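$ ./design --mode recover --in tokens.txt
reading tokens...
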């Protein structure tokens, strides 16, 4: 199981309690399981999501991650019936931060995926969803929340790299999309440029 560095001691311990970030609204999802033994979370994966597509501010994303989405509420939800998916975090358009799965556990956000020769990215990653679409810029409040969250995760976990969903599932996923400002996050993270896919430098 992934373990936070210095849990219970110092800054990292103050920020996380058993993998739950103290500055996020806790919304425990039933969609998670244990990471493989001895596997640490060392990759951050950024996603974007809107539900229905292009609509913001409703409760459908929350319902989806909590396993409570009424697939009859909208015609386009029919294809989501029975889907079991989650992310560790969601950042709303106004910057509000929600957490669905402890960072010490495996959320189900990546699907079929590979990063630098390592398959099954859910095993070793923390998934962060940004409310948005490929076609729209993200909000300044979202970047503010994301920068703070990434900084906290780097303090608490052995994060070595960051990637978009499109980088770990090319051809299948396109998020967080071409309008995501990777340089902002790269500079704020303090990670080397080599920690990011080459197109995001």
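writing sequence...
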């Amino acid at each position: 199981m992934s373990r936070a560095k210095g849990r219970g001691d110092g800054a990292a311990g103050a920020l996380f309690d058993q993998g739950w970030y103290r500055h996020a609204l806790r919304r425990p999802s039933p969609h998670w399981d244990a990471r493989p033994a001895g596997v640490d979370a060392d990759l951050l994966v950024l996603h974007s999501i809107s539900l229905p597509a292009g609509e913001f501010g409703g409760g459908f994303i929350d319902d989806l991650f909590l396993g409570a989405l009424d697939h009859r509420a909208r015609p386009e939800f029919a294809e989501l019936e029975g889907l079991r998916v989650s992310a560790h975090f969601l950042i709303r358009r106004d910057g509000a931060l929600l957490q669905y799965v402890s960072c010490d556990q495996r959320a189900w956000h990546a699907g079929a995926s590979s990063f630098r020769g390592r398959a099954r990215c859910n095993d070793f990653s923390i998934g962060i969803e940004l409310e948005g679409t490929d076609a729209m810029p993200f909000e300044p409040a979202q970047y503010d929340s994301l920068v703070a969250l990434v900084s906290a995760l780097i303090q608490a976990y052995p994060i070595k790299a960051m990637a978009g969903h499109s980088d770990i599932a090319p051809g299948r996923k396109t998020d967080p999309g071409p309008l995501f400002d990777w340089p902002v996050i790269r500079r704020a993270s303090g990670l080397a440029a080599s920690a990011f896919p080459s197109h995001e430098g």
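exit 0
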